[in-house]
UniProtKB/TrEMBL annotation:
Protein name: tRNA-2-methylthio-N(6)-dimethylallyladenosine synthase
Binding site for [4Fe-4S] cluster 2: 167, 171, 174
InterPro entries per record: Elp3/MiaA/NifB-like_rSAM, Methylthiotransferase, Methylthiotransferase_CS, Methylthiotransferase_N, Methylthiotransferase_N_sf, MiaB_methiolase, rSAM, rSAM_horseshoe
CDD domains the record matches: Radical_SAM (cd01335)
Naturally occurring in which organism (per UniProt): Hyphococcus luteus
Residues annotated for [4Fe-4S] cluster 1 binding in this entry: 19, 55, 93
One Pfam family of this chain: TRAM
Taxonomic lineage: Bacteria, Pseudomonadati, Pseudomonadota, Alphaproteobacteria, Parvularculales
Amino acid sequence: MTDPRPKQGKSVFIRTYGCQMNVYDSERMAGLLKPLGYGLADKPEGADLVILNTCHIREKAAEKVYSELGRLKRLKADKAKTGGEMKIAVAGCVAQAEGPEIAARAPQVDMVVGPQAYHRLPELIAKAARERGDVLDTDFAVEEKFDRLAAREAAGPSAFLTVQEGCDKFCTFCVVPYTRGAEVSRNVDAIVAEARSLAAQGVREITLIGQNVNAWASAPPAGVSGDQWGLGELCRHLAKIDGIERIRFTTSHPRDMDDGLIAALAEEEKLMPYLHLPVQAGSDKILKAMNRGHNGEHYVRLIERIRAARPDIALSGDFIVGFPGETNEDFEATLALVEEVGYASAYSFKYSRRPGTPGAAMGKQVAEDEKDARLARLQSLLESQRQAFNAAQIGAELPVLFEKPGRNEGQLVGRSPYLQSVHVRAPHSLLGKIVKVKIEDVTPNALAGALSSKEEAAA
Ligand code: SAH
Ligand code: SF4
Ligand code: F3S
Protein backbone atom coordinates (compact mmCIF):
# COMPACT_ATOMS: atom_id res chain seq x y z
CA MET A 1 0.00 0.00 0.00
CA THR A 2 1.22 3.50 -0.71
CA ASP A 3 1.67 5.89 2.17
CA PRO A 4 -1.30 8.32 2.02
CA ARG A 5 0.55 11.03 3.97
CA PRO A 6 2.10 13.84 1.94
CA LYS A 7 5.85 13.55 1.45
CA GLN A 8 7.68 15.37 4.21
CA GLY A 9 9.56 18.35 2.70
CA LYS A 10 12.50 20.11 4.25
CA SER A 11 12.02 23.13 6.44
CA VAL A 12 13.85 26.42 6.81
CA PHE A 13 13.49 28.90 9.64
CA ILE A 14 14.65 32.45 8.90
CA ARG A 15 15.11 35.03 11.66
CA THR A 16 15.46 38.61 10.45
CA TYR A 17 17.19 41.42 12.33
CA GLY A 18 17.81 45.01 11.26
CA CYS A 19 16.34 47.13 8.50
CA GLN A 20 13.91 46.73 5.56
CA MET A 21 16.77 45.65 3.34
CA ASN A 22 17.09 42.53 5.46
CA VAL A 23 13.32 41.95 5.46
CA TYR A 24 13.42 42.04 1.66
CA ASP A 25 16.48 39.78 1.50
CA SER A 26 14.88 37.21 3.84
CA GLU A 27 11.83 37.06 1.62
CA ARG A 28 14.06 36.52 -1.42
CA MET A 29 16.03 33.79 0.37
CA ALA A 30 12.80 31.96 1.18
CA GLY A 31 11.82 32.22 -2.50
CA LEU A 32 15.19 30.88 -3.56
CA LEU A 33 14.95 27.83 -1.29
CA LYS A 34 11.38 26.90 -2.16
CA PRO A 35 12.28 25.11 -5.44
CA LEU A 36 14.79 23.07 -3.41
CA GLY A 37 11.90 21.73 -1.36
CA TYR A 38 12.24 23.99 1.69
CA GLY A 39 9.01 25.13 3.30
CA LEU A 40 9.04 27.99 5.83
CA ALA A 41 9.03 26.90 9.47
CA ASP A 42 7.62 29.21 12.14
CA LYS A 43 10.15 28.16 14.78
CA PRO A 44 13.76 26.98 14.72
CA GLU A 45 13.11 23.77 16.71
CA GLY A 46 13.53 20.81 14.39
CA ALA A 47 14.17 22.85 11.23
CA ASP A 48 16.55 21.39 8.62
CA LEU A 49 18.05 24.79 7.96
CA VAL A 50 18.14 27.89 10.15
CA ILE A 51 19.19 31.21 8.69
CA LEU A 52 19.97 34.21 10.87
CA ASN A 53 19.78 37.31 8.69
CA THR A 54 21.78 39.66 10.85
CA CYS A 55 22.34 43.37 11.51
CA HIS A 56 25.63 45.01 12.48
CA ILE A 57 24.44 48.57 12.98
CA ARG A 58 24.79 48.72 16.78
CA GLU A 59 26.73 46.56 19.20
CA LYS A 60 23.56 45.17 20.78
CA ALA A 61 22.22 44.03 17.40
CA ALA A 62 25.46 42.22 16.58
CA GLU A 63 25.77 40.57 20.00
CA LYS A 64 22.22 39.19 19.76
CA VAL A 65 23.48 36.95 16.96
CA TYR A 66 25.98 35.19 19.20
CA SER A 67 23.43 34.55 21.93
CA GLU A 68 20.99 33.19 19.34
CA LEU A 69 23.77 30.95 17.98
CA GLY A 70 24.23 29.55 21.50
CA ARG A 71 20.57 28.52 21.58
CA LEU A 72 20.79 27.05 18.08
CA LYS A 73 23.79 24.95 19.08
CA ARG A 74 21.54 23.12 21.56
CA LEU A 75 18.75 22.71 19.00
CA LYS A 76 21.25 21.33 16.50
CA ALA A 77 22.47 18.80 19.09
CA ASP A 78 18.85 17.81 19.91
CA LYS A 79 18.16 17.17 16.24
CA ALA A 80 21.36 15.14 15.83
CA LYS A 81 20.26 12.92 18.76
CA THR A 82 17.16 11.92 16.84
CA GLY A 83 19.26 11.10 13.75
CA GLY A 84 18.45 14.36 11.93
CA GLU A 85 20.60 17.25 10.90
CA MET A 86 20.19 21.01 11.28
CA LYS A 87 22.35 23.25 9.14
CA ILE A 88 22.95 26.78 10.42
CA ALA A 89 23.64 29.75 8.17
CA VAL A 90 24.54 33.29 9.19
CA ALA A 91 23.57 35.85 6.54
CA GLY A 92 23.37 39.63 6.44
CA CYS A 93 25.62 42.37 7.74
CA VAL A 94 27.28 40.56 10.66
CA ALA A 95 28.20 37.79 8.22
CA GLN A 96 29.82 40.39 5.98
CA ALA A 97 31.65 42.20 8.78
CA GLU A 98 32.67 39.30 11.00
CA GLY A 99 32.71 36.19 8.77
CA PRO A 100 35.96 34.68 10.05
CA GLU A 101 35.14 35.62 13.66
CA ILE A 102 31.77 33.84 13.44
CA ALA A 103 33.53 30.73 12.16
CA ALA A 104 35.99 30.87 15.06
CA ARG A 105 33.50 31.73 17.82
CA ALA A 106 30.65 29.49 16.66
CA PRO A 107 31.74 26.17 15.12
CA GLN A 108 28.08 25.08 14.96
CA VAL A 109 27.68 27.48 11.99
CA ASP A 110 27.85 25.72 8.62
CA MET A 111 27.55 28.67 6.24
CA VAL A 112 28.36 32.36 6.33
CA VAL A 113 26.86 34.34 3.48
CA GLY A 114 27.05 38.10 2.92
CA PRO A 115 24.18 40.35 1.75
CA GLN A 116 25.49 40.42 -1.82
CA ALA A 117 26.09 36.69 -2.10
CA TYR A 118 22.90 35.02 -0.84
CA HIS A 119 21.72 34.21 -4.37
CA ARG A 120 24.37 31.48 -4.19
CA LEU A 121 22.73 29.86 -1.12
CA PRO A 122 21.66 26.76 -3.09
CA GLU A 123 25.30 26.07 -4.07
CA LEU A 124 26.47 26.82 -0.53
CA ILE A 125 23.94 24.40 0.92
CA ALA A 126 25.11 21.69 -1.46
CA LYS A 127 28.72 22.45 -0.60
CA ALA A 128 28.02 22.43 3.13
CA ALA A 129 26.41 19.00 2.72
CA ARG A 130 29.57 17.69 1.05
CA GLU A 131 32.20 19.35 3.21
CA ARG A 132 32.70 19.64 6.90
CA GLY A 133 33.61 23.02 8.29
CA ASP A 134 32.41 26.44 7.26
CA VAL A 135 31.46 27.61 3.83
CA LEU A 136 32.01 31.34 3.51
CA ASP A 137 30.78 33.64 0.73
CA THR A 138 30.96 37.37 1.25
CA ASP A 139 31.63 38.60 -2.30
CA PHE A 140 30.06 41.78 -3.63
CA ALA A 141 28.21 41.23 -6.92
CA VAL A 142 24.89 43.08 -6.81
CA GLU A 143 23.82 42.85 -10.44
CA GLU A 144 24.45 39.15 -10.58
CA LYS A 145 22.45 38.68 -7.39
CA PHE A 146 19.29 40.28 -8.78
CA ASP A 147 19.69 38.47 -12.10
CA ARG A 148 19.82 35.14 -10.35
CA LEU A 149 16.88 35.58 -7.98
CA ALA A 150 13.72 33.75 -8.94
CA ALA A 151 10.41 35.51 -9.62
CA ARG A 152 8.84 36.71 -6.41
CA GLU A 153 5.67 35.60 -4.73
CA ALA A 154 3.80 38.46 -3.09
CA ALA A 155 3.00 37.99 0.58
CA GLY A 156 0.24 40.61 0.86
CA PRO A 157 -1.01 43.86 -0.65
CA SER A 158 2.07 45.83 0.42
CA ALA A 159 5.61 44.91 -0.62
CA PHE A 160 9.17 46.15 -0.38
CA LEU A 161 11.14 46.44 -3.59
CA THR A 162 14.91 46.99 -3.45
CA VAL A 163 16.00 49.60 -6.00
CA GLN A 164 19.33 50.66 -4.56
CA GLU A 165 21.92 49.11 -2.32
CA GLY A 166 25.01 50.21 -0.52
CA CYS A 167 26.32 53.54 0.60
CA ASP A 168 29.17 55.88 -0.32
CA LYS A 169 28.44 58.47 2.36
CA PHE A 170 30.65 57.14 5.15
CA CYS A 171 29.01 58.80 8.12
CA THR A 172 31.65 58.39 10.79
CA PHE A 173 29.41 56.34 13.11
CA CYS A 174 28.12 53.85 10.55
CA VAL A 175 29.09 50.35 9.40
CA VAL A 176 26.78 50.18 6.37
CA PRO A 177 29.33 51.31 3.74
CA TYR A 178 31.53 48.42 4.92
CA THR A 179 28.85 45.75 5.21
CA ARG A 180 26.81 46.58 2.12
CA GLY A 181 29.48 48.01 -0.16
CA ALA A 182 29.32 50.90 -2.62
CA GLU A 183 26.11 52.51 -3.89
CA VAL A 184 24.57 50.53 -6.74
CA SER A 185 21.25 51.26 -8.49
CA ARG A 186 19.16 48.59 -10.20
CA ASN A 187 18.07 49.44 -13.71
CA VAL A 188 14.57 50.67 -14.57
CA ASP A 189 13.55 47.60 -16.57
CA ALA A 190 14.38 45.21 -13.75
CA ILE A 191 12.49 47.34 -11.22
CA VAL A 192 9.45 47.71 -13.51
CA ALA A 193 9.36 43.96 -14.17
CA GLU A 194 9.36 43.24 -10.44
CA ALA A 195 6.70 45.89 -9.75
CA ARG A 196 4.45 44.59 -12.55
CA SER A 197 4.69 41.06 -11.29
CA LEU A 198 3.82 42.21 -7.77
CA ALA A 199 0.86 44.23 -9.06
CA ALA A 200 -0.42 41.21 -11.00
CA GLN A 201 -0.41 39.29 -7.71
CA GLY A 202 -2.56 41.88 -5.95
CA VAL A 203 0.09 44.18 -4.51
CA ARG A 204 -1.34 47.70 -4.24
CA GLU A 205 1.50 49.45 -2.40
CA ILE A 206 5.21 49.26 -3.09
CA THR A 207 7.90 50.70 -0.89
CA LEU A 208 11.09 51.29 -2.82
CA ILE A 209 13.97 50.57 -0.51
CA GLY A 210 17.68 51.30 -0.38
CA GLN A 211 20.24 52.42 2.20
CA ASN A 212 20.25 55.72 0.30
CA VAL A 213 17.16 55.24 -1.79
CA ASN A 214 17.10 58.78 -3.15
CA ALA A 215 20.65 58.39 -4.45
CA TRP A 216 19.07 56.01 -6.97
CA ALA A 217 20.10 57.01 -10.51
CA SER A 218 19.99 55.14 -13.78
CA ALA A 219 19.61 55.57 -17.52
CA PRO A 220 15.99 55.96 -18.70
CA PRO A 221 14.41 52.79 -20.09
CA ALA A 222 14.97 51.88 -23.75
CA GLY A 223 13.12 54.19 -26.12
CA VAL A 224 12.97 57.11 -23.67
CA SER A 225 15.36 59.92 -24.45
CA GLY A 226 17.03 62.19 -21.94
CA ASP A 227 19.59 62.16 -19.20
CA GLN A 228 19.95 59.99 -16.17
CA TRP A 229 16.76 59.44 -14.22
CA GLY A 230 16.54 60.12 -10.51
CA LEU A 231 14.12 58.63 -7.99
CA GLY A 232 11.43 61.20 -8.87
CA GLU A 233 11.28 60.00 -12.48
CA LEU A 234 11.33 56.38 -11.35
CA CYS A 235 8.37 56.96 -9.02
CA ARG A 236 6.35 58.71 -11.74
CA HIS A 237 7.11 55.83 -14.11
CA LEU A 238 6.07 53.15 -11.59
CA ALA A 239 2.88 55.10 -10.86
CA LYS A 240 1.72 54.26 -14.40
CA ILE A 241 1.56 50.53 -13.61
CA ASP A 242 -2.05 49.36 -13.33
CA GLY A 243 -2.84 48.12 -9.87
CA ILE A 244 -0.09 50.04 -8.09
CA GLU A 245 -2.02 52.59 -6.04
CA ARG A 246 0.57 53.71 -3.52
CA ILE A 247 4.29 54.31 -3.72
CA ARG A 248 6.65 54.98 -0.84
CA PHE A 249 10.43 55.09 -0.60
CA THR A 250 12.90 54.77 2.25
CA THR A 251 15.56 55.65 3.51
CA SER A 252 16.36 59.04 2.06
CA HIS A 253 19.41 61.16 2.73
CA PRO A 254 19.02 64.97 2.98
CA ARG A 255 21.89 65.46 0.53
CA ASP A 256 20.12 63.49 -2.21
CA MET A 257 16.69 65.14 -1.85
CA ASP A 258 16.75 66.83 -5.26
CA ASP A 259 14.21 69.11 -6.97
CA GLY A 260 13.01 66.31 -9.25
CA LEU A 261 12.00 64.19 -6.26
CA ILE A 262 10.36 67.10 -4.44
CA ALA A 263 8.37 67.91 -7.61
CA ALA A 264 7.28 64.28 -7.86
CA LEU A 265 6.09 64.40 -4.23
CA ALA A 266 4.09 67.50 -5.10
CA GLU A 267 2.52 66.18 -8.30
CA GLU A 268 2.25 62.41 -8.16
CA GLU A 269 -0.78 61.47 -6.08
CA LYS A 270 0.28 57.85 -5.75
CA LEU A 271 3.35 58.99 -3.83
CA MET A 272 2.30 58.85 -0.19
CA PRO A 273 2.64 61.98 1.95
CA TYR A 274 5.15 60.47 4.34
CA LEU A 275 8.89 60.91 4.28
CA HIS A 276 11.58 59.30 6.40
CA LEU A 277 14.45 61.77 6.31
CA PRO A 278 17.02 61.16 9.04
CA VAL A 279 19.05 64.08 10.36
CA GLN A 280 20.78 62.33 13.31
CA ALA A 281 21.60 65.50 15.28
CA GLY A 282 20.89 69.23 15.46
CA SER A 283 24.29 70.69 16.26
CA ASP A 284 26.40 71.77 13.29
CA LYS A 285 29.58 70.74 15.08
CA ILE A 286 28.24 67.19 15.57
CA LEU A 287 26.79 66.97 12.05
CA LYS A 288 30.24 67.88 10.74
CA ALA A 289 31.97 65.33 12.95
CA MET A 290 29.45 62.76 11.72
CA ASN A 291 30.37 63.64 8.11
CA ARG A 292 26.70 64.09 7.22
CA GLY A 293 27.56 66.66 4.56
CA HIS A 294 24.95 69.25 5.62
CA ASN A 295 24.21 71.45 8.60
CA GLY A 296 21.05 71.93 10.66
CA GLU A 297 19.96 75.03 8.74
CA HIS A 298 20.20 73.18 5.42
CA TYR A 299 17.98 70.39 6.76
CA VAL A 300 15.34 72.75 8.18
CA ARG A 301 15.20 74.75 4.91
CA LEU A 302 14.91 71.51 2.97
CA ILE A 303 11.93 70.46 5.10
CA GLU A 304 10.33 73.85 4.44
CA ARG A 305 10.69 73.32 0.69
CA ILE A 306 9.23 69.83 0.89
CA ARG A 307 6.29 71.07 2.99
CA ALA A 308 5.66 73.92 0.58
CA ALA A 309 5.50 71.37 -2.26
CA ARG A 310 3.38 68.81 -0.37
CA PRO A 311 1.65 70.49 2.57
CA ASP A 312 0.15 67.28 4.00
CA ILE A 313 3.51 65.51 4.26
CA ALA A 314 4.31 63.76 7.55
CA LEU A 315 7.93 63.45 8.56
CA SER A 316 9.89 60.79 10.27
CA GLY A 317 13.56 60.73 11.25
CA ASP A 318 16.46 58.94 12.92
CA PHE A 319 18.49 60.44 15.75
CA ILE A 320 21.68 59.51 17.56
CA VAL A 321 22.47 60.88 21.02
CA GLY A 322 25.91 60.84 22.61
CA PHE A 323 28.07 60.93 19.52
CA PRO A 324 31.72 61.59 20.57
CA GLY A 325 32.18 65.21 21.59
CA GLU A 326 28.43 65.90 22.02
CA THR A 327 28.02 68.40 24.86
CA ASN A 328 24.80 69.28 26.61
CA GLU A 329 24.58 72.34 24.41
CA ASP A 330 24.93 70.21 21.25
CA PHE A 331 22.20 67.93 22.53
CA GLU A 332 19.93 70.94 23.20
CA ALA A 333 20.38 71.79 19.50
CA THR A 334 18.94 68.37 18.60
CA LEU A 335 15.90 69.03 20.82
CA ALA A 336 15.49 72.48 19.25
CA LEU A 337 15.59 71.00 15.75
CA VAL A 338 12.95 68.42 16.71
CA GLU A 339 10.76 71.21 18.13
CA GLU A 340 11.16 73.22 14.96
CA VAL A 341 10.49 70.40 12.48
CA GLY A 342 7.80 68.39 14.27
CA TYR A 343 7.87 64.63 13.54
CA ALA A 344 4.99 62.21 13.06
CA SER A 345 7.26 59.38 14.15
CA ALA A 346 10.97 58.75 14.71
CA TYR A 347 13.67 56.31 15.74
CA SER A 348 16.32 57.38 18.21
CA PHE A 349 19.41 55.58 19.44
CA LYS A 350 22.35 55.89 21.81
CA TYR A 351 25.58 56.15 19.88
CA SER A 352 27.20 52.73 19.65
CA ARG A 353 30.93 52.55 19.04
CA ARG A 354 31.45 50.35 15.99
CA PRO A 355 34.88 48.83 15.36
CA GLY A 356 36.55 50.09 12.19
CA THR A 357 34.47 53.29 11.90
CA PRO A 358 36.16 56.71 12.40
CA GLY A 359 33.81 57.55 15.29
CA ALA A 360 35.09 54.63 17.34
CA ALA A 361 38.57 56.17 17.42
CA MET A 362 37.40 59.69 18.33
CA GLY A 363 38.20 61.20 21.70
CA LYS A 364 35.54 62.57 24.10
CA GLN A 365 33.33 59.51 24.03
CA VAL A 366 30.16 60.29 26.00
CA ALA A 367 29.48 58.35 29.23
CA GLU A 368 26.75 55.72 29.05
CA ASP A 369 24.57 57.25 31.79
CA GLU A 370 24.71 60.61 30.02
CA LYS A 371 23.56 58.93 26.80
CA ASP A 372 20.71 57.27 28.73
CA ALA A 373 19.55 60.60 30.13
CA ARG A 374 19.68 62.34 26.74
CA LEU A 375 17.87 59.50 25.00
CA ALA A 376 15.08 59.60 27.58
CA ARG A 377 14.58 63.35 27.07
CA LEU A 378 14.65 63.07 23.28
CA GLN A 379 12.28 60.11 23.22
CA SER A 380 9.77 61.82 25.45
CA LEU A 381 9.69 64.83 23.11
CA LEU A 382 9.40 62.64 19.99
CA GLU A 383 6.68 60.54 21.61
CA SER A 384 4.62 63.60 22.50
CA GLN A 385 4.89 64.77 18.88
CA ARG A 386 3.83 61.35 17.63
CA GLN A 387 0.80 61.24 19.94
CA ALA A 388 -0.20 64.75 18.92
CA PHE A 389 0.07 63.83 15.24
CA ASN A 390 -2.07 60.72 15.75
CA ALA A 391 -4.67 62.55 17.84
CA ALA A 392 -4.97 65.20 15.11
CA GLN A 393 -6.40 62.51 12.78
CA ILE A 394 -9.54 62.05 14.86
CA GLY A 395 -12.50 63.08 12.76
CA ALA A 396 -10.55 62.82 9.51
CA GLU A 397 -11.49 60.50 6.68
CA LEU A 398 -8.39 58.61 5.56
CA PRO A 399 -7.88 56.09 2.76
CA VAL A 400 -6.73 52.86 4.40
CA LEU A 401 -5.11 49.90 2.63
CA PHE A 402 -6.33 46.79 4.44
CA GLU A 403 -3.42 44.39 4.90
CA LYS A 404 -4.51 41.67 7.30
CA PRO A 405 -7.23 40.46 9.65
CA GLY A 406 -7.21 42.10 13.07
CA ARG A 407 -6.91 40.31 16.37
CA ASN A 408 -10.63 40.57 17.00
CA GLU A 409 -13.22 38.74 14.94
CA GLY A 410 -14.65 40.85 12.11
CA GLN A 411 -11.81 43.35 12.24
CA LEU A 412 -9.22 44.31 9.62
CA VAL A 413 -5.95 46.19 10.07
CA GLY A 414 -4.61 48.54 7.46
CA ARG A 415 -2.34 51.51 6.95
CA SER A 416 -3.16 55.17 6.58
CA PRO A 417 -1.22 57.30 4.06
CA TYR A 418 0.96 58.30 7.05
CA LEU A 419 1.86 54.67 7.81
CA GLN A 420 -0.29 54.53 10.94
CA SER A 421 -1.96 51.20 11.73
CA VAL A 422 -5.72 51.55 11.54
CA HIS A 423 -8.15 49.03 13.11
CA VAL A 424 -11.61 48.86 11.59
CA ARG A 425 -14.64 46.56 11.73
CA ALA A 426 -14.77 45.48 8.11
CA PRO A 427 -15.62 42.43 6.01
CA HIS A 428 -12.87 40.12 4.79
CA SER A 429 -13.71 41.03 1.20
CA LEU A 430 -11.98 44.39 1.73
CA LEU A 431 -8.55 42.82 2.32
CA GLY A 432 -6.09 44.21 -0.23
CA LYS A 433 -8.36 47.18 -0.99
CA ILE A 434 -8.02 50.88 -0.26
CA VAL A 435 -11.10 52.17 1.49
CA LYS A 436 -12.10 55.47 3.14
CA VAL A 437 -12.22 55.21 6.93
CA LYS A 438 -13.51 57.75 9.42
CA ILE A 439 -10.98 57.96 12.27
CA GLU A 440 -12.74 57.86 15.63
CA ASP A 441 -10.15 57.03 18.24
CA VAL A 442 -6.44 56.69 18.94
CA THR A 443 -4.63 54.15 21.09
CA PRO A 444 -0.90 54.45 21.90
CA ASN A 445 0.13 52.56 18.76
CA ALA A 446 -2.78 52.69 16.36
CA LEU A 447 -5.85 54.50 15.13
CA ALA A 448 -9.37 53.07 15.21
CA GLY A 449 -12.12 53.98 12.79
CA ALA A 450 -15.25 52.95 10.94
CA LEU A 451 -16.16 52.42 7.31
CA SER A 452 -18.43 55.03 5.89
CA SER A 453 -21.88 53.55 5.22
CA LYS A 454 -21.25 53.90 1.46
CA GLU A 455 -18.12 51.71 1.71
CA GLU A 456 -19.96 49.21 3.84
CA ALA A 457 -22.73 48.89 1.31
CA ALA A 458 -20.23 48.38 -1.53
CA ALA A 459 -18.26 45.67 0.31
N1 SAH B 1 21.06 55.07 5.41
C1 SAH B 1 20.24 55.56 6.41
C2 SAH B 1 20.28 54.85 7.74
C3 SAH B 1 20.93 53.55 7.92
S1 SAH B 1 21.16 52.96 9.54
C4 SAH B 1 20.57 57.01 6.62
O1 SAH B 1 21.58 57.51 6.21
O2 SAH B 1 19.81 57.68 7.27
C5 SAH B 1 19.69 53.39 10.42
C6 SAH B 1 19.93 54.30 11.57
O3 SAH B 1 20.72 53.67 12.56
C7 SAH B 1 20.71 55.56 11.22
O4 SAH B 1 19.93 56.52 10.64
C8 SAH B 1 21.24 55.97 12.57
O5 SAH B 1 20.33 56.80 13.25
C9 SAH B 1 21.37 54.65 13.32
N2 SAH B 1 22.77 54.27 13.51
C10 SAH B 1 23.66 53.95 12.56
N3 SAH B 1 24.87 53.69 13.12
C11 SAH B 1 24.73 53.85 14.46
C12 SAH B 1 25.61 53.75 15.56
N4 SAH B 1 26.90 53.44 15.42
N5 SAH B 1 25.10 53.98 16.80
C13 SAH B 1 23.80 54.32 16.97
N6 SAH B 1 22.94 54.43 15.96
C14 SAH B 1 23.38 54.21 14.71
FE1 SF4 C 1 25.18 54.88 7.23
FE2 SF4 C 1 25.38 57.44 6.65
FE3 SF4 C 1 25.34 55.66 4.70
FE4 SF4 C 1 23.13 56.13 6.09
S1 SF4 C 1 24.21 57.59 4.78
S2 SF4 C 1 23.93 54.14 5.55
S3 SF4 C 1 23.93 56.51 8.14
S4 SF4 C 1 26.91 55.88 6.23
FE1 F3S D 1 21.60 46.51 9.89
FE2 F3S D 1 22.75 45.91 7.64
FE3 F3S D 1 20.39 47.08 7.64
S1 F3S D 1 23.75 46.68 9.42
S2 F3S D 1 20.45 48.30 9.47
S3 F3S D 1 20.85 45.07 8.40
S4 F3S D 1 22.03 47.41 6.20
